[in-house]
Amino acid sequence: MNWIFWLILIVVLTVVEIATVNLLTIWFIISGIVTLVISVFTDNIVIQSTFFVLLGVLLLFTTRPIFKRLLNTKEEKTNLDRVIGATGVVTEEIKKNHIGEVRVMGKRWSAISDHKINVGEEVIVEKIEGVKLIVRKESDK
């Protein structure tokens, strides 16, 4: 009769894993399958439950990081990412920590910098925060 409990638990955990896709309950599904087999040999619910929990936690902490790394797909660069590292020209003065404007790749962007940058100076885009470019003077390396 104990094997029915483990079979139901495996099905429930499988549905949860399919719904979440977080590689969290899959380790307990595997643990449940092993415990289902063990339940054929022993009726002791304490042994079965202990084995289920210990194996599930052991699998979770030892193999999850490895699988997450293997399954982690590289982020694809978007057109927005092409702006990072590009050179632009200041079209509206940028004062220290105050928003100005730059023209990069034919488009105007709000920009901010740690230094004052005058109109006409060339800048390098370091990163994007929200809809603002973080820039530095091309001469500052």
Overall description:
By secondary structure, the protein is of the alpha+beta class. It has three helices and five strands; from the N terminus they run αααβββββ. Strands 1-2-3-5-4 form a five-stranded mixed β-barrel. α1 (2-20) runs antiparallel to α2 (26-41). The longest helix has 27 residues, at 45-71. The termini are far apart. The model has no long low-confidence stretch (mean pLDDT 87).
Considering the chains and any ligands shown, give keywords for the structure.
22% strand; single chain; alpha+beta; 141 residues; 3 helices; five-stranded mixed beta barrel
Summarize the SSE layout with pairings.
Layout: H1 2-20, H2 26-41, H3 45-71, E1 87-92, E2 100-104, E3 107-112, E4 122-129, E5 132-137
Parallel strand pairs: 3-5
Antiparallel strand pairs: 1-2, 1-4, 2-3, 4-5
Overall pLDDT metric: 87
Please report the total strand number as a whole number: 5
Low-confidence runs of at least 5 consecutive residues? none
Distance between the termini: 72 Å
Short summary of the structure?
The protein has 141 residues and is α+β, with helices and mostly antiparallel strands.
